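Note to self: user wants both folds in one dump. Writing first protein now.
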Amino acid sequence: MSEQRQTAARTGRPALVAIVGKSDSGKTTLIEKVVPELVRLGLRVGTVKHDAHSFEIDHPGKDSWRHGQAGAEAYVIASPERLAFIARLDEELELVDIVERFYDGFDIVVAEGYKRTAPHRVELFRVGAGHAEPLCAPGEAIALVTDADLEHEHRFGLDDGAGLARFLAGRLDSLREY
């Protein structure tokens, strides 16, 4: 068993944090900076991207799509490198439910979005994106990533993915409380 998987096996419930911010603030770009740094720290990392709209992962006419069209409530597309689980939902799953169902053995899950329901949030606020004020009220975000001159106990610059990753890694136990 790899050292990384041994670490994950000891952790139990994964830590959970969401990167939140207004539209076009750069949430995906920040996640692209933070995830490799968390991995460099030896953590097994998963992500969840919230989409407020319906999306299509499967392709009409393909065999797996045909399985769904035939009435399967859930189906998997599997290859040697990837696996996608597709299920019909009667209602949206909460972020915590997604993490508990699909991320057993992970050290941390970083979500994008879930600005109102994530138990732990890091806000990305960019004046350079034309935003006038942060999304979160004071005290709601555990950290602030920004290009603005705003006060926050745990403030990071837009390019400080390594610093944010160290901050999150140092708080895994508290981020497991949800």
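First done. Writing the second protein, which came from a different request thread.
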Amino acid sequence: MKLQNITYSIPWNLFLITIGSIILGVGLKAIVIPNGMITGGFTGTGILLFYYTGFFTPGSWYFILNIPVFILGWVFISKRFLFYSIYGAIVLTFIIDFIQFEIPMKDLILATLAGGVVIGAGVGIIFRSLGSAGGNDIISVILNQKFGIRIGTYNFGFNFVLFFFSFGTLDTDLILYSMAMSYIISQVIEYFITLFNQRKMIFIVSNTPKEIADEIMKKLKRGATFLKGEGAYTGKEKNIILTVANTFQIKRIEEITFTIDPDAFLITENTFNVLGKGFSKRKIY
């Protein structure tokens, strides 16, 4: 089975959702709740309801809040995404209520950092699957699919509003720590989402573009495209090489380029995501 096809297999997606939910649950129950902090999204809302009412458990509140959101997932995304998300919500609910230990931390700054990294890693792993853990994740995917809004950016914005309305009802210091943790979570989520997709886009301006492109294709098995350009000073037309490579191939491309043409001009840029033959396959929920 090809590596790209594995991402669509049921066992692989259930594995990602399960591992991510376990990590997320540990972050919530063992770090966030013992320190009196809250997270954003539906997990944070569930924790707030638990703090206020004392009824049910944070996991039970989380699952109850998910019920209307599941309908949105069914309508706007797909049945497959919905079933994966229901599974994720059930696993997360069970993990939150099952975990009875805490990771002792006396310094709230350390708790903020640890909570942000652990929760962000858990959510990021879940987002590598074709499902979610329910709640705000479903809304994030809908907005990302329909409007191209980045998942981490939306989560941070939603959480900022949630924390803003928490002022006056919770301890101010804890809310500020929670906001800082929310930012860390959003950054870690984005990192995990782009972990295997990020590549380097390289432009090469040279008087020997054909030779350089041939060597890149021959030695690195990377494709290359010629873009038509014109020198601003000389007015001469020339072919500009465009290629995409991973981090480990950059130095080899530099070596190939400047060995053939010491006067070449090479530009390297980060890319958020690369889809297509030889790279990642477009994820369809």
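Dump finished. Worth passing along: The first helix runs from residue 3 to 6.
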